[in-house]
Amino acid sequence: MAVTTDVLGPRPTGRWARRFSALIIVAGAVAVLLPLAWMLSTSLKPESEVFRSPIEWVPSTVRPENYREAVSMVPFWRYALNSLIVAIPVVVGTVVSSTAVAYAFARMRAPGLRWLFLLVIAAIMLPSEVTLVPSFLLFKELGWVGSYLPLTVPAWLGGGAFNIFLLRQYFLTIPREQEELARVEGHSFLSILLRVIIPQSWPAISVVAALEFVSVWNDFLGPLLYITDQSKYTLPLGLNFYKDIYNTQWAHLMAASLLALLPCIVVFFLAQRAFTQGVVLTGRR
Amino acid sequence: MTASPVTRIRRQRASRREAIVAYGFISPWLIGFVGLTLGPMLASLILSFTDYNLVTTASTSFVGDDNYRRALLDDPLVLQSLRVTSYYATLAVALDLVVGLCLALLLNTGFRAIGAIRTIYYLPAAVSGVAVSLLWLWIFQPSGGLANGLLDLVGLPGINWVYSTTWVIPAFVLMSLWGVGRSAFIYLAILQRIPTNLYEAAAVDGAGPLRRLFRITVPLVTPAILLNLVLGIIGNFQTFTQAFVISEGGPANASLFYTLYLYRNAFRYFRIGYASALAWILFALLLTLTLLVFRSSRRWVYYEAGGPGDRG
Q: Is ipTM over 0.85?
């Protein structure tokens, strides 16, 4: 099958048609950026100017103090630290365990393994609501409610069906020659995984790590169920709490929200290539 | 030529060792699957036939299909939440499909600064959750919010958005449309793989642009549409955080998403048995919808003849 990678696309398009579509594409991009620009603009305004009509994009008085005040109105840095304390073991656990599991599904032969892989795919489709309540009861029985364990331990148990699927598909595209050579030389599966597979798989692994970071950093339902103590709140819980107390102080609320999103935006730009490919690969929301 | 018995035994031993190693590697997932998926699923199914309540755990008994009966026949809020959720999911999935595909077609006409545009369109996929919900809550504020500010700019009257029973769901749909770039680039990846000669041949046969669009482009994109449709239905039926943070189900239950109602039953009223039944109703509904979509896909999804997806 011929593959066209021509920048002009698969068929010649008229100049006016191209100009017209460029116009719409740029307008769409502006529309996508508008909410974030609005967020930044609001966060720098004095509270008294926030409600002005018509819209003022550039604040007449820029007030960066909003940020300093926002982080002291609630223990923002405490929440950020808590989010990090949850995110690090989740991302590491997800990467480690999904890599190992995906490698077995991609390369090893054992009775029943194909059937188990079908279960992985089925688990992707399973709505999390079905397991939500009994999982809560299980963690309550274990005495884990109120700690971070219900949020972090599951990441080490396979790292999610989606990630296993994604990594397995990636491993299948790696040529086998090098591995077979290593097998003949008597290397174990583990050493092949570490020395041959992983060094070639950083694109896929960074997809998993980046997507997982964003998802755990923004997770709300998990902490909402399991974190009871305010000093253990993660950022999403903290922001929700913030909203309940200062629900009309939009400038400060936007400053805090923007700060909370910053790590995700940084990760997005760092892992941008991996990120856009990963979203295409998984279709994940 | 047959292998000698010694080689055969050695091979058997090696493959047994490989099987043990394989199960060792997947054991974390296996434990997780049994302990956190299969076990809870079974527990949830059993609980759904009981009146288990976290407050009155001592007096739990089996109640047969009472929970299901009550949910489907006697609880108007279940009906309301199903209506709200399916209304939202239909609009969100349909718009994501149409706008995403149109955007992909436009991007495919040879837009130059594709790298920068890709970054911008993908940005919403990187941010989500409470912070983004707060942003949209601010955007939808009737006074001072961006949405009404823009309406005012073009001379239209303001809307009460998330405080109006009519507009709260469209507001959520608008918010979901912010992430449409993701779908557009999935479609674009496929469009760029369509061989040019297909279009050339069609043009030689005298097919106009519209005909080429509906006879070549759209059929070749249908497998991706199917994937987005299924994932979109499942994903949108699980909407929770936005509803919890922005509108708390209101006004007058106009944004009582199904998962929000399930959450309330389980963790606010502690009706574990009832909430489990609600979870299984959702599961059955999604399973049915997914199967229906797959079933219908035989009629509208185009698989290249002889390809791995060819089902005749």
A: yes
